[in-house]
Amino acid sequence: MEAFSSKDMAMKAQKKILSHMASKSVAHMFIDDNSGEVLDELYRVSKEHSGNRAEAQKVVKNMIKIAVKVGVLFKHDKFSAEELSVAQDFRKKLHNGAMTAISFQEVEFTFDKNVMMELLSDCRDLLLKLVEKHLTPKSLDRIRHVFNHYSDPELLTHLYDPHGTLWPNLSKICIGLNRMIEEGKL
Predict the structure, then answer these.
(1) For residue 82, is it within any domain?
(2) Does the entry feature the keyword Membrane, yes or no (predicted)?
């Protein structure tokens, strides 16, 4: 006999519906203003650096889809004890990455792209480990896409150039990250 669970079906429907709604305007309904501002700045950074509006939109859309799907999985208690431990490791690594990003922006001549690339790579790997049993290969590719995009050495060098065009965006991102840390969201 086939096992059917309406709870599992509802979760799958939520993930599917919410992933189709992953636009900036819909994202603002699900996230706070500060997170929305950080996402907007990340979009601007991507657009300015790549010169490709569609690519920048795709990266941010993928970021939103990932966040929504992981949120749905948490809400429905789909993670095992081992996966919850990985989630804690991911959260700590993300927090460490945010603190490092802020520090590199605030203290002149401290930026090290290799450190940022490694932090982002570690975050990517932990997130993939957390969701590999729960999300489709397409969703896993979205995670890789987002982290690989923002860990690009040229983008990071451009972003952290104090005389570069992306410096004001970085300043706004760091202000938002600081707020998230203070509020215990990161």
Answers:
(1) yes
(2) no
